[in-house]
Amino acid sequence: MHDLKIDIAKDFSAYPIGRDAEDSVDSNGQKFREEFLVPALEAAEAANSTLEVSFEGVESFGSSFLEEAFGGLVRKNGWSEHQLRKILKITYDWRGYARMERRMWAHIADAKPEN
């Protein structure tokens, strides 16, 4: 099985922003998590594979987007940081995205399951 991939800029939005539909109807973190991340992570886990998420081409990331999309995996969907580190691979060529990746992992590490 080939690894799964989500290219945020091409598959979702080059300007992902906001936590939910109140912040941004089409490009918010909740929508990205529910419609893209969770199904792809579940498929990758079932296939004993990884999920590559490309940051390349994204013009900017809002902090609330990153927290809701990635921290929400822990808070809302019950994933653990350990599980996500095994499955989720962030890719990019431009080194400026490294800061966004560090923030994303910090949101995951700080998140606590809600149930």
Overview of this protein structure:
By secondary structure, the chain is mainly alpha-helical. Helix content is 50%, strand content 10%. Strands 1-2-3 form a 3-stranded parallel beta sheet. The relative contact order is 0.19.
- How many E strands? 3
Radius of gyration from the alpha-carbon trace, in angstroms:
13 Å
- Calculate the mean pLDDT score and round it: 95
List segments where confidence is low: pLDDT < 50 over at least 5 consecutive residues.
none
| Domain unit count | 1
Estimate the helix proportion, in percent.
40-55%
Ends: how far apart? 33 Å
Strand coverage percent: 5-15%
- Lateral strand order in the biggest sheet: 1-2-3
Shape: globular
Count helical runs: 5
Q: Topology as H/E string?
A: EHHEHHEH
Classify the secondary structure makeup into a structural class. Answer: mainly alpha
Biggest sheet overview? 3 strands, parallel
Short description:
The chain is mainly alpha-helical.
Overview features:
single chain; 115 residues; mainly alpha; three-stranded parallel sheet; 3 strands; 50% helix; 10% strand; globular
Which helices and strands occur, and which strands form pairs?
Blueprint: E1 4-7, H1 8-12, H2 29-46, E2 51-54, H3 63-75, H4 81-87, E3 88-91, H5 97-110
Parallel strand pairs: 1-2, 2-3
Helix pairs in contact: 2-3, 3-5
